[in-house]
Amino acid sequence: MDIISLITDDKFNYYFYRVGSKLSDDVFIAFAENCPRLKKFVLECLEITDKTVLSIAHNLHDLEHLSVSQISNISNEAVAEVIKCCRKLKLLKISHNKQITEKCLVTIPESSLSIQTLDFLMCNFNPNGIAILGELLNLEDINLSKCEDLTTDDLMPIMEGCKNLKAISLNLNKKFDDNFIDIILTKLPNMEKFYLVSTTITDEALVIMGKKGKKISVIDIGYTKVTGFGARYVSENCACLEYLGLIRCDSVPEEEVEKLVVEYPHIMYSTFIQDTKRMFAKIERDGRLD
Fold first, then answer.
1. Chain centroid to CA 177: how far?
2. pTM, to two decimals
3. Residue 176 CB neighbour total at 10 angstroms
4. pLDDT digits over 14-50, tens only?
5. Minimal CA–CA distance to 58: which of 87, 16, 18?
6. Reading across the β-sheet that carries 15-19, which strands appear in turn?
7. In the beta sheet, which residues pair with residue 67?
8. Are 141 and 116 in contact (CB under 8 A)?
9. Is 99 helix (H, G, I), strand (E, B) or coil?
10. Dihedral of the alpha carbons of 58, 61, 64, 69, in degrees to the nearest 10
11. Contact, 210 vs 238, CB < 8 A?
């Protein structure tokens, strides 16, 4: 009996996950057509096309979570159809696909979306086309990492329209600096998570976070020029801070990190050395990593 013949009713209502498979569109279309109550669909590293995505859009009206990652044969039109038809969608991840541009967002105005999380990591967005995201009033978490040429001005509609935003990922975007942190925390003082690896922020941004970011719990600033002063400042002044990522922040001495680990045990500090220590401690304690 093949996999398609097993899909005969709608009892399968939670999720289907498959990575690195040679399965064709037909298999995933069968899931979409025969499991109308499916709420979570994760598709990664697959050789599928728009046929699958369009079938998801037209059949899975209760879908809440769609993740399509590292699949190159998906078009803007198919993604736009998902946004238009899946009105209960809370999480949409379309990542590692340079064919996906801001044109996939055209159906947002005609959709009563409940989207809370958007992930467009390494997509090919034109900065002038993302203003429409400001209409997603329930948006809480957005990832625009490695979407090149974005600036603070481009994100203004999001900062002004998405008042529930709590987390933002702008890794590998060199045009985001200390001024961006000042503006976003002025407009959105309830921000909780910043992922700013390999941006151009400095200690000044961390001072601003310490003064304005009263609810910040996560800061990831690896591969930046911050120093031990900035790391200590946010540790002292961000009362809710739980994680501080400092991978390859070469101006933060490991000796200073060791002191911070002792002084602020509620904060997880991530450096190559600290992560290695935790890994070996877990192996010693549990006998394995997972």
1. 19
2. 0.91
3. 23
4. 555 555 567 889 988 988 998 888 999 998 888 899 9
5. 87
6. 15-19, 40-44, 65-69, 91-95, 117-119, 141-143, 167-169, 193-195, 218-220, 243-245, 268-270
7. 42, 93
8. yes
9. coil
10. -10
11. yes
